[in-house]
Hints:
TIM Barrel, alpha/beta, two-stranded antiparallel sheet
Amino acid sequence: MENNLTSTPHLFSPLTIRSVTLRNRIGVSPMCQYSATDGVANDWHYVHLGSRAVGGAGLVIVEATGVAPEGRITPGCLGLWGEQHIEPLARIAKFVKAHGAVAGIQIAHAGRKASADLPWNGGAHLSAAQGGWETIAPSAIAFGGELTKVPRAMTEAEIVRVQNDFVAAAKRALTAGFEWLELHAAHGYLFNEFLSPLTNQRTDKYGGSFENRTRLLLDTTRAVRKVWPDHLPLAVRISATDWREDGWQIEDSIALAKLLKAEGVDLMDCSSGGVVPDAKITVKPGYQVPFAEKVRHGAGIATATVGFITEPKLADDIVRNGQADVVLLARQMLVDPYWPAHAAKALGHKLTPPNQYARAW
Ligand code: 536
Protein backbone atom coordinates (compact mmCIF):
# COMPACT_ATOMS: atom_id res chain seq x y z
CA MET A 1 0.00 0.00 0.00
CA GLU A 2 1.22 3.47 -0.82
CA ASN A 3 2.38 5.70 1.96
CA ASN A 4 0.29 8.85 2.26
CA LEU A 5 3.15 10.66 3.94
CA THR A 6 5.59 10.33 1.08
CA SER A 7 3.42 10.41 -2.00
CA THR A 8 0.85 12.89 -3.26
CA PRO A 9 -2.65 11.78 -2.33
CA HIS A 10 -4.79 11.00 -5.33
CA LEU A 11 -8.23 9.52 -5.99
CA PHE A 12 -7.05 5.98 -5.30
CA SER A 13 -4.91 6.63 -2.25
CA PRO A 14 -6.38 5.42 1.05
CA LEU A 15 -7.53 7.85 3.71
CA THR A 16 -7.49 7.11 7.42
CA ILE A 17 -9.69 9.11 9.77
CA ARG A 18 -9.56 7.98 13.41
CA SER A 19 -9.41 4.16 13.12
CA VAL A 20 -11.31 3.94 9.85
CA THR A 21 -9.54 3.64 6.49
CA LEU A 22 -11.26 4.34 3.19
CA ARG A 23 -9.65 2.29 0.40
CA ASN A 24 -9.93 5.31 -1.90
CA ARG A 25 -11.33 8.84 -1.91
CA ILE A 26 -14.53 7.99 -3.75
CA GLY A 27 -17.75 8.12 -1.79
CA VAL A 28 -21.35 7.42 -2.71
CA SER A 29 -23.18 10.56 -1.67
CA PRO A 30 -26.25 10.00 0.50
CA MET A 31 -29.14 9.90 -1.98
CA CYS A 32 -32.80 9.74 -1.05
CA GLN A 33 -34.45 6.71 -2.63
CA TYR A 34 -38.02 7.49 -1.47
CA SER A 35 -38.61 3.75 -1.30
CA ALA A 36 -39.08 2.89 2.38
CA THR A 37 -42.27 2.04 4.24
CA ASP A 38 -42.56 3.51 7.74
CA GLY A 39 -38.85 4.37 7.56
CA VAL A 40 -37.79 0.74 7.23
CA ALA A 41 -35.08 -0.18 4.69
CA ASN A 42 -35.86 -2.97 2.24
CA ASP A 43 -34.41 -4.89 -0.71
CA TRP A 44 -34.23 -1.73 -2.83
CA HIS A 45 -31.85 -0.09 -0.37
CA TYR A 46 -29.88 -3.32 0.01
CA VAL A 47 -29.31 -3.73 -3.72
CA HIS A 48 -28.81 0.00 -4.39
CA LEU A 49 -26.16 0.42 -1.69
CA GLY A 50 -24.66 -3.04 -1.99
CA SER A 51 -24.08 -2.64 -5.74
CA ARG A 52 -22.15 0.52 -5.16
CA ALA A 53 -19.88 -1.10 -2.60
CA VAL A 54 -19.20 -3.89 -5.11
CA GLY A 55 -18.53 -1.15 -7.69
CA GLY A 56 -15.44 -0.11 -5.75
CA ALA A 57 -16.36 3.01 -3.77
CA GLY A 58 -14.38 3.64 -0.60
CA LEU A 59 -17.37 5.00 1.28
CA VAL A 60 -21.08 4.30 0.85
CA ILE A 61 -23.37 6.67 2.74
CA VAL A 62 -27.00 5.76 3.35
CA GLU A 63 -29.50 8.49 2.44
CA ALA A 64 -30.92 11.17 4.75
CA THR A 65 -32.46 9.03 7.50
CA GLY A 66 -35.07 10.66 9.69
CA VAL A 67 -34.38 10.87 13.43
CA ALA A 68 -38.12 11.29 13.97
CA PRO A 69 -41.15 10.41 11.83
CA GLU A 70 -41.99 14.11 11.25
CA GLY A 71 -38.37 14.71 10.22
CA ARG A 72 -38.67 12.65 7.04
CA ILE A 73 -38.69 14.57 3.77
CA THR A 74 -41.32 12.20 2.34
CA PRO A 75 -43.31 9.19 3.58
CA GLY A 76 -40.82 7.07 1.57
CA CYS A 77 -37.72 8.23 3.44
CA LEU A 78 -35.68 6.03 5.76
CA GLY A 79 -35.84 6.44 9.53
CA LEU A 80 -33.90 5.54 12.66
CA TRP A 81 -36.40 6.59 15.29
CA GLY A 82 -37.13 3.06 16.45
CA GLU A 83 -35.54 -0.31 17.13
CA GLN A 84 -37.40 -1.76 14.12
CA HIS A 85 -35.16 0.26 11.81
CA ILE A 86 -31.90 -1.31 12.95
CA GLU A 87 -31.93 -4.84 11.52
CA PRO A 88 -32.50 -4.06 7.81
CA LEU A 89 -29.84 -1.33 7.99
CA ALA A 90 -27.46 -3.72 9.78
CA ARG A 91 -27.83 -6.15 6.88
CA ILE A 92 -26.85 -3.37 4.47
CA ALA A 93 -23.89 -2.18 6.57
CA LYS A 94 -22.60 -5.76 6.82
CA PHE A 95 -22.72 -6.29 3.05
CA VAL A 96 -21.11 -2.93 2.28
CA LYS A 97 -18.26 -3.73 4.69
CA ALA A 98 -17.86 -7.27 3.36
CA HIS A 99 -17.13 -5.73 -0.03
CA GLY A 100 -14.43 -3.40 1.19
CA ALA A 101 -16.28 -0.11 1.54
CA VAL A 102 -16.88 1.82 4.73
CA ALA A 103 -20.58 1.93 5.62
CA GLY A 104 -21.83 5.40 6.47
CA ILE A 105 -25.21 6.86 7.24
CA GLN A 106 -26.58 10.39 7.22
CA ILE A 107 -29.07 11.25 9.96
CA ALA A 108 -31.46 14.08 9.34
CA HIS A 109 -34.48 16.16 10.23
CA ALA A 110 -36.15 17.90 7.31
CA GLY A 111 -37.81 20.74 9.27
CA ARG A 112 -40.10 22.83 7.06
CA LYS A 113 -39.25 20.77 3.98
CA ALA A 114 -40.70 17.61 5.54
CA SER A 115 -44.08 16.11 4.65
CA ALA A 116 -43.51 16.30 0.90
CA ASP A 117 -44.82 13.95 -1.76
CA LEU A 118 -42.43 11.62 -3.59
CA PRO A 119 -40.56 13.49 -6.36
CA TRP A 120 -42.07 11.27 -9.04
CA ASN A 121 -45.51 12.36 -7.77
CA GLY A 122 -44.56 16.03 -8.03
CA GLY A 123 -42.85 16.58 -4.68
CA ALA A 124 -45.39 19.08 -3.31
CA HIS A 125 -46.30 19.29 0.36
CA LEU A 126 -48.85 16.66 1.38
CA SER A 127 -52.12 17.57 3.04
CA ALA A 128 -53.29 15.61 6.09
CA ALA A 129 -55.75 13.75 3.83
CA GLN A 130 -52.83 12.70 1.61
CA GLY A 131 -50.88 11.38 4.59
CA GLY A 132 -48.96 14.59 5.36
CA TRP A 133 -48.09 15.91 8.80
CA GLU A 134 -47.43 19.14 10.67
CA THR A 135 -43.96 20.52 10.04
CA ILE A 136 -41.70 22.26 12.55
CA ALA A 137 -38.92 24.80 12.02
CA PRO A 138 -37.09 27.61 13.84
CA SER A 139 -39.63 30.14 12.56
CA ALA A 140 -43.10 29.95 11.04
CA ILE A 141 -42.08 30.78 7.45
CA ALA A 142 -42.97 28.53 4.51
CA PHE A 143 -40.27 27.50 2.01
CA GLY A 144 -42.41 28.53 -0.96
CA GLY A 145 -42.97 27.09 -4.40
CA GLU A 146 -44.51 23.63 -4.09
CA LEU A 147 -43.63 23.50 -0.38
CA THR A 148 -46.48 25.69 0.82
CA LYS A 149 -46.90 24.49 4.42
CA VAL A 150 -46.22 27.08 7.09
CA PRO A 151 -44.22 25.26 9.76
CA ARG A 152 -44.87 25.70 13.48
CA ALA A 153 -42.05 27.52 15.26
CA MET A 154 -40.43 25.05 17.67
CA THR A 155 -40.63 25.46 21.42
CA GLU A 156 -37.40 25.15 23.41
CA ALA A 157 -38.66 21.78 24.68
CA GLU A 158 -39.03 20.59 21.09
CA ILE A 159 -35.51 21.79 20.28
CA VAL A 160 -34.15 19.69 23.14
CA ARG A 161 -36.24 16.73 21.97
CA VAL A 162 -34.79 16.92 18.47
CA GLN A 163 -31.25 16.90 19.93
CA ASN A 164 -32.16 13.78 21.89
CA ASP A 165 -33.62 12.23 18.72
CA PHE A 166 -30.27 12.73 16.96
CA VAL A 167 -28.43 11.12 19.87
CA ALA A 168 -30.80 8.12 19.91
CA ALA A 169 -30.49 7.73 16.13
CA ALA A 170 -26.68 7.89 16.36
CA LYS A 171 -26.73 5.07 18.93
CA ARG A 172 -28.93 2.97 16.65
CA ALA A 173 -26.62 3.68 13.69
CA LEU A 174 -23.76 2.34 15.79
CA THR A 175 -25.75 -0.76 16.75
CA ALA A 176 -26.49 -1.32 13.06
CA GLY A 177 -22.74 -1.45 12.40
CA PHE A 178 -22.12 1.85 10.64
CA GLU A 179 -18.59 3.21 10.96
CA TRP A 180 -19.15 6.70 9.55
CA LEU A 181 -21.86 9.08 10.74
CA GLU A 182 -22.92 12.26 9.01
CA LEU A 183 -25.23 14.90 10.47
CA HIS A 184 -27.30 16.56 7.74
CA ALA A 185 -27.08 20.32 8.23
CA ALA A 186 -27.47 21.27 4.55
CA HIS A 187 -30.08 21.75 1.82
CA GLY A 188 -32.53 23.81 3.85
CA TYR A 189 -33.42 21.07 6.32
CA LEU A 190 -33.84 21.66 10.06
CA PHE A 191 -30.25 22.41 11.18
CA ASN A 192 -29.71 24.53 8.07
CA GLU A 193 -32.91 26.44 8.87
CA PHE A 194 -31.44 27.33 12.26
CA LEU A 195 -28.08 28.36 10.74
CA SER A 196 -29.42 30.66 8.04
CA PRO A 197 -30.67 34.16 8.87
CA LEU A 198 -33.13 33.76 5.99
CA THR A 199 -35.07 31.07 7.86
CA ASN A 200 -34.24 31.74 11.51
CA GLN A 201 -36.00 34.76 12.96
CA ARG A 202 -36.05 33.56 16.55
CA THR A 203 -35.45 35.97 19.38
CA ASP A 204 -34.41 33.37 21.98
CA LYS A 205 -30.96 31.82 22.45
CA TYR A 206 -31.37 29.86 19.18
CA GLY A 207 -31.76 32.91 16.91
CA GLY A 208 -30.25 36.27 16.06
CA SER A 209 -26.45 36.19 16.36
CA PHE A 210 -24.17 33.68 14.63
CA GLU A 211 -23.52 32.17 18.06
CA ASN A 212 -27.24 31.67 18.64
CA ARG A 213 -28.01 30.32 15.15
CA THR A 214 -25.21 27.74 15.39
CA ARG A 215 -26.18 26.69 18.94
CA LEU A 216 -28.53 23.82 18.02
CA LEU A 217 -26.05 22.18 15.64
CA LEU A 218 -23.14 22.62 18.06
CA ASP A 219 -25.10 21.31 21.06
CA THR A 220 -26.35 18.34 19.04
CA THR A 221 -22.88 17.58 17.70
CA ARG A 222 -21.46 17.65 21.24
CA ALA A 223 -24.18 15.27 22.47
CA VAL A 224 -23.77 12.94 19.48
CA ARG A 225 -19.98 12.87 19.83
CA LYS A 226 -20.46 11.57 23.41
CA VAL A 227 -22.28 8.46 22.17
CA TRP A 228 -20.48 8.05 18.83
CA PRO A 229 -17.21 6.25 19.68
CA ASP A 230 -13.84 8.01 19.64
CA HIS A 231 -12.48 5.55 17.09
CA LEU A 232 -15.16 6.38 14.48
CA PRO A 233 -15.36 9.40 12.17
CA LEU A 234 -18.08 12.03 12.45
CA ALA A 235 -18.94 14.27 9.49
CA VAL A 236 -21.32 17.19 9.03
CA ARG A 237 -22.85 18.18 5.70
CA ILE A 238 -23.48 21.88 5.30
CA SER A 239 -24.75 24.19 2.62
CA ALA A 240 -21.59 26.30 2.46
CA THR A 241 -23.55 29.21 1.02
CA ASP A 242 -27.23 30.11 0.60
CA TRP A 243 -26.31 31.81 -2.72
CA ARG A 244 -27.97 34.98 -1.40
CA GLU A 245 -26.26 38.21 -0.32
CA ASP A 246 -28.45 38.41 2.75
CA GLY A 247 -27.96 34.74 3.64
CA TRP A 248 -25.35 32.36 5.07
CA GLN A 249 -21.91 32.88 3.49
CA ILE A 250 -18.77 30.80 2.97
CA GLU A 251 -17.07 32.82 5.75
CA ASP A 252 -19.81 31.63 8.12
CA SER A 253 -19.09 28.06 7.01
CA ILE A 254 -15.40 28.41 7.80
CA ALA A 255 -16.19 29.84 11.25
CA LEU A 256 -18.70 27.01 11.85
CA ALA A 257 -16.19 24.37 10.72
CA LYS A 258 -13.66 25.63 13.30
CA LEU A 259 -16.27 25.28 16.05
CA LEU A 260 -17.39 21.84 14.87
CA LYS A 261 -13.77 20.68 14.67
CA ALA A 262 -13.38 21.64 18.33
CA GLU A 263 -16.39 19.42 19.09
CA GLY A 264 -14.75 16.40 17.47
CA VAL A 265 -16.08 16.62 13.92
CA ASP A 266 -13.58 15.07 11.50
CA LEU A 267 -14.85 16.11 8.11
CA MET A 268 -17.00 18.86 6.62
CA ASP A 269 -19.07 17.70 3.66
CA CYS A 270 -19.54 20.89 1.65
CA SER A 271 -22.65 21.21 -0.47
CA SER A 272 -24.66 24.40 -1.00
CA GLY A 273 -28.13 25.87 -1.47
CA GLY A 274 -31.58 24.52 -0.77
CA VAL A 275 -32.52 27.05 1.91
CA VAL A 276 -34.68 29.27 -0.28
CA PRO A 277 -36.25 28.49 -3.66
CA ASP A 278 -35.12 31.69 -5.44
CA ALA A 279 -31.30 31.40 -5.15
CA LYS A 280 -29.33 31.96 -8.37
CA ILE A 281 -26.92 29.07 -8.83
CA THR A 282 -24.75 28.43 -11.89
CA VAL A 283 -24.20 24.71 -11.87
CA LYS A 284 -21.15 23.31 -13.68
CA PRO A 285 -18.75 20.41 -13.10
CA GLY A 286 -17.13 20.81 -9.70
CA TYR A 287 -19.01 24.06 -8.97
CA GLN A 288 -18.98 23.37 -5.22
CA VAL A 289 -15.28 22.42 -5.03
CA PRO A 290 -14.16 25.96 -4.02
CA PHE A 291 -16.31 25.64 -0.86
CA ALA A 292 -14.58 22.43 0.23
CA GLU A 293 -11.21 24.02 -0.57
CA LYS A 294 -11.91 27.19 1.43
CA VAL A 295 -13.26 25.30 4.43
CA ARG A 296 -10.34 22.82 4.29
CA HIS A 297 -7.68 25.54 4.33
CA GLY A 298 -9.62 28.10 6.37
CA ALA A 299 -10.57 25.77 9.21
CA GLY A 300 -7.85 23.14 8.94
CA ILE A 301 -10.29 20.24 8.65
CA ALA A 302 -10.79 17.41 6.16
CA THR A 303 -13.52 18.08 3.62
CA ALA A 304 -15.65 16.30 1.07
CA THR A 305 -16.94 17.87 -2.09
CA VAL A 306 -20.03 16.90 -4.05
CA GLY A 307 -22.01 18.09 -7.02
CA PHE A 308 -21.85 17.54 -10.76
CA ILE A 309 -18.65 15.49 -10.69
CA THR A 310 -18.62 12.93 -13.48
CA GLU A 311 -15.08 12.84 -14.91
CA PRO A 312 -12.33 10.75 -13.28
CA LYS A 313 -9.71 13.40 -14.12
CA LEU A 314 -11.67 16.12 -12.29
CA ALA A 315 -12.15 13.90 -9.22
CA ASP A 316 -8.45 13.00 -9.19
CA ASP A 317 -7.37 16.65 -9.60
CA ILE A 318 -9.54 17.70 -6.64
CA VAL A 319 -7.67 15.30 -4.35
CA ARG A 320 -4.20 15.94 -5.86
CA ASN A 321 -4.64 19.71 -5.57
CA GLY A 322 -5.66 19.45 -1.93
CA GLN A 323 -9.10 20.92 -2.54
CA ALA A 324 -10.95 18.10 -0.78
CA ASP A 325 -10.06 14.81 0.92
CA VAL A 326 -13.08 12.87 -0.31
CA VAL A 327 -15.02 13.19 -3.56
CA LEU A 328 -18.68 12.24 -3.25
CA LEU A 329 -20.55 11.27 -6.36
CA ALA A 330 -24.31 11.33 -6.52
CA ARG A 331 -26.15 11.12 -9.82
CA GLN A 332 -23.07 9.78 -11.61
CA MET A 333 -23.19 6.78 -9.25
CA LEU A 334 -26.77 6.16 -10.35
CA VAL A 335 -25.62 6.25 -13.97
CA ASP A 336 -22.70 3.92 -13.22
CA PRO A 337 -22.40 1.89 -9.99
CA TYR A 338 -19.01 0.75 -11.34
CA TRP A 339 -17.73 4.31 -11.71
CA PRO A 340 -14.77 3.64 -9.35
CA ALA A 341 -13.67 0.67 -11.49
CA HIS A 342 -14.07 2.70 -14.69
CA ALA A 343 -12.27 5.68 -13.15
CA ALA A 344 -9.40 3.44 -12.04
CA LYS A 345 -8.95 2.18 -15.58
CA ALA A 346 -9.04 5.72 -16.97
CA LEU A 347 -6.45 6.92 -14.45
CA GLY A 348 -4.17 3.90 -14.78
CA HIS A 349 -4.78 2.39 -11.35
CA LYS A 350 -5.41 -1.23 -10.52
CA LEU A 351 -8.53 -1.95 -8.52
CA THR A 352 -8.90 -5.36 -6.90
CA PRO A 353 -12.17 -6.75 -8.26
CA PRO A 354 -14.48 -8.95 -6.23
CA ASN A 355 -13.50 -12.60 -6.86
CA GLN A 356 -16.77 -13.18 -8.65
CA TYR A 357 -15.96 -10.50 -11.25
CA ALA A 358 -12.18 -10.95 -11.37
CA ARG A 359 -12.00 -12.29 -14.92
CA ALA A 360 -14.06 -9.44 -16.32
CA TRP A 361 -12.45 -6.34 -14.71
C1 536 B 1 -30.27 17.84 -3.83
N1 536 B 1 -31.22 17.08 -3.08
C2 536 B 1 -30.92 16.76 -1.82
C3 536 B 1 -31.74 16.03 -1.02
C4 536 B 1 -33.01 15.51 -1.55
C5 536 B 1 -33.49 16.22 -2.76
C6 536 B 1 -32.43 16.62 -3.70
C7 536 B 1 -31.33 15.78 0.37
O1 536 B 1 -30.37 16.35 0.84
N2 536 B 1 -31.99 14.91 1.07
C8 536 B 1 -30.14 19.25 -3.39
C9 536 B 1 -28.96 19.91 -3.61
C10 536 B 1 -28.82 21.22 -3.25
C11 536 B 1 -29.87 21.87 -2.67
C12 536 B 1 -31.05 21.23 -2.43
C13 536 B 1 -31.18 19.92 -2.79
